[in-house]
């Protein structure tokens, strides 16, 4: 019984650490892509915030600092409460 509990804990620990790495990899992906996307923004903090939200939801960020939203349909189609584009 003790062996079963120990092995269950070990498997749980391994799975949780690998899921954590996957989540962190996605965050670094979004941070780097949004850094490029927002590099010329007048309101850098706001751009990075909304780009990060959109990247997390869509798992993609269009290339360049402006435009190219056709590369990522989800990113392009997200709207704020006023019906305007949410993603920079």
Show the helix and strand layout.
Layout: H1 2-37, H2 44-58, H3 73-77
Helix pairs in contact: 1-2
Report on the architecture of this protein.
64% of the residues lie in helices and 0% in strands. By secondary structure, the protein is mainly alpha-helical. It has one domain. Helix 1 (2-37) crosses helix 2. The longest helix is centred in the first third of the chain and has 36 residues, at 2-37. It starts with a helix and ends in an 11-residue tail after the last helix. Mean pLDDT is 80; it is low at 13-25.
Query: What's the N-to-C terminus distance?
Result: 55 Å
Number of helices: 3
* Unreliable runs: 13-25
Beta-strand content: under 5%
Alpha carbon gyration radius: 18 Å
Outline the biggest β-sheet: none
| Helical/strand content category | mainly alpha
- Report the principal-axis shape: elongated
User: What is the helix content?
Assistant: 55-70%
Summarize this structure briefly.
The protein has 88 residues and is an all-alpha fold. The chain has helices at 2-37, 44-58, 73-77.
Keywords summarizing the entry:
88 residues, mainly alpha, 3 helices, 64% helix, signal, Peamaclein-like
